[in-house]
């Protein structure tokens, strides 16, 4: 197995949380900004969820949602989608500022509280993020997305055993939900259990409607085990040329953080 340190692996704690945040926005029904129903971009209008947008479209989404938010900063769906698009382009502090305003306008709304918790985590305030997400959960009517979100925060805090218990609770409510399986796989990656990570991520990748970032994470885990060519095929499978290029670039970036990209290519050459 390729020698590596844990610094790059721990960077994926942010990736764990981003997946859950995007899921909360896309799993609750789809609506355009103008219709202002909860939490996503409109399927009916033919537009894609924020989580599924290629990088070339994200900046346009940020501008569009930003303009809508400026017109009505109290609109729930607009605020959620604007905050999500800001997180997708790495503007976490601004995303948090947006969610703070939305939370003031909707102080008891579970969707808003959960998205606020994710924005807090993305901005690095993990204890407050955990408190906020837990406050949004209700024991008598639990939400699998909140269990998964709480688990992702705990994984970022290094509490993997507790996090995995929450992922399993989420799976009890939503069997084979790909985002939860992906988070469970990434949790095992954080513990350097690459075989378990690959198993969960492969199961997640087989589910219908899976987000492309699950495939990215699977490619990463395969690449970390030295199967570079297989990883590259996974990263670019069943995607448009633009999306495939973005996925391979993601894989290259992640592996380069620990100087394994060239090592993997060398290993492939030696094995051939």
UniProtKB/TrEMBL annotation:
It holds the Pfam family TPR_16. Gene3D superfamilies: Tetratricopeptide repeat domain. SUPFAM superfamilies: TPR-like. InterPro entries: TMTC_O-mannosyltransferase, TPR-like_helical_dom_sf, TPR_rpt, UCP035836. TPR repeats lie at residues 144-177. SMART domains: TPR. GO terms for molecular function: mannosyltransferase activity. GO terms for biological process: protein O-linked glycosylation via mannose. Keywords: TPR repeat. PROSITE patterns: PROKAR_LIPOPROTEIN, TPR. It comes from the Bacteria. This is Tetratricopeptide repeat protein.
């Amino acid at each position: 197995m390729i020698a590596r340190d844990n610094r790059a692996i721990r960077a994926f704690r942010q990736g764990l949380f981003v997946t859950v945040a995007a899921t909360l926005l896309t799993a609750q029904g789809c609506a355009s900004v103008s219709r202002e129903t909860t939490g996503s971009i409109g399927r009916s209008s033919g537009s894609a969820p924020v989580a599924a947008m290629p990088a070339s479209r994200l900046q346009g989404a940020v501008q569009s949602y930003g303009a809508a938010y400026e017109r009505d900063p109290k609109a729930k769906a607009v605020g959620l989608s604007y905050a999500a698009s800001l997180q997708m382009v790495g503007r976490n502090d601004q995303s948090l500022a947006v969610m703070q305003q939305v939370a003031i306008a909707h102080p008891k709304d579970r969707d808003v509280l959960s998205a606020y918790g994710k924005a807090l985590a993305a901005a690095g305030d993990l204890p407050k993020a955990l408190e906020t997400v837990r406050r949004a959960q209700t024991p008598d009517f639990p939400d699998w997305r909140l269990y998964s979100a709480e688990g992702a925060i705990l994984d970022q805090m290094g509490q993997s055993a507790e996090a995995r218990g929450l992922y399993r609770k989420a799976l009890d409510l939503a069997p084979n939900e790909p985002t939860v399986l992906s988070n469970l796989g990434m949790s095992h990656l954080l513990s350097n259990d690459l075989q378990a990570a690959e198993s969960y991520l492969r199961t997640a990748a087989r589910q219908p409607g899976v987000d492309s970032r699950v495939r990215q994470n699977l490619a990463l885990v395969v690449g970390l085990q030295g199967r570079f060519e297989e990883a590259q095929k996974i990263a670019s499978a069943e995607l448009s040329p633009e999306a495939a290029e973005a996925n391979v670039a993601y894989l290259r970036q992640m592996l380069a953080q620990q100087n394994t990209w060239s090592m993997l290519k060398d290993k492939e050459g030696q094995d051939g």
